[in-house]
Amino acid sequence: MKSSNKPKNIMYYSQDMTRALPQGGENAEDAALMRQLETAAHASLNGLREASEKGELKPFLRVARDTEDMKACEALAKHVYATFDHLVLVGTGGSSLGAKALSVLAEDDARAPTLHLLENVDPHTTQRVLETIDPAKTFCLLISKSGNTVEVLANTHVLLAHFTRTLGQEAIKDHFLAITEPKSSPLKDISRHFGMPTLDHDPHIGGRYSVLSLVGLLPAAMLGLDVHALRRGAAQVLEHALVTREVAENYPALGATLQTYHMRRGRPIHVLMPYCDRLATFSYWYRQLVAESLGKEHTGITPLASFGAVDQHSMLQLYNDGQADKQFTFITLDQTGQGPVIAPVKGVESLPHIMGKTIGDMMMAMHHGTIQSVAAHGHPLRVLRVRTVDEATLGALMMHFMLETIISGELMQIDPFNQPAVEESKRFAREYLERTA
User: Fold this and answer.
1) pTM
2) For position 329, what pLDDT does the model report?
3) Cis (ω within 30 of 0) for the bond into 309?
């Protein structure tokens, strides 16, 4: 790549994705489709550049460059990190999945508060959280863009009753914070009633695109993570995408072009399969991003969250020998030589080819084996290699996939920012509750 600001946290290669592309003009129809998509991707990139030059980038992209908005929250984040043993995050979908994906980076920090996610209305989970936490040592972060999210409100009411019984109503303002749009809503009214502090959720940033805003960064900071590094990693990918004009070298645009091509050629399912436990929750953040953004108007790419090497024993048979309707992205971290060494046990026969290897060696072998197997079955695939799993890397990955998704939406000629079918399900749920009142 010619550009000097190539992202440092992700090493891309995608030549295997070209396995199913037309070669040498042998298929005129396929070649014409690729030219059409590449032209549309060029236009999409030009639109991003023009918006950047005019200061009109979408807020969820622009926030990656921001260094000021978190300053007002840093003291609060440090206070929560240093003072509380438990952090309860009440949110669902885009209000929780970003923070959930980032939270794995805090798992090795014994000083960080334990994160409890109330992202569903499963009675067992809610009750277990209530029985686990000590309210005096717990901080609750409530996130709902609209302030009307029924799952958030239900769990909020339960928590407020629990904390009021144990600590008294006056303590609520010291143990709760809400992030919601600056408008009238039930969550806003609850916050006002209890004197609970609130922060504004940017009305122009949709939930699934909000991970680089306070929605994702504040809980990450409360867990002791370096949110500035997160944004730096994201900004690096953004800047590279803005200055790299050739689709073949602009990886979000290339990814969008190839995925849309394969979707149009009968492979609408995209399997994202990281070979790293710490990226498992990232796959679920990605799943919502793509499903809600691109699943519209009876078309779209269906994201399938998978997990190496575990899913080699549950899904690989289907992937390789089932319908040829899938394309693949593997994310890998070089773990060669890492982890415990596999040693023989005296008097026990085992597999000689694993003796003396490390657990990391095994993961790399599994990864390479799956790639070769998927490629041998003729499925299009690409690999994203990460140098390490840290805040900058996750920021880079998140920005890459957000850019790839919005460019894909333009190539498919659908709006990647609305979610009409989700709103319909909320209406049906409300009607059910009213009937059973």
Assistant:
1) 0.93
2) 94
3) yes
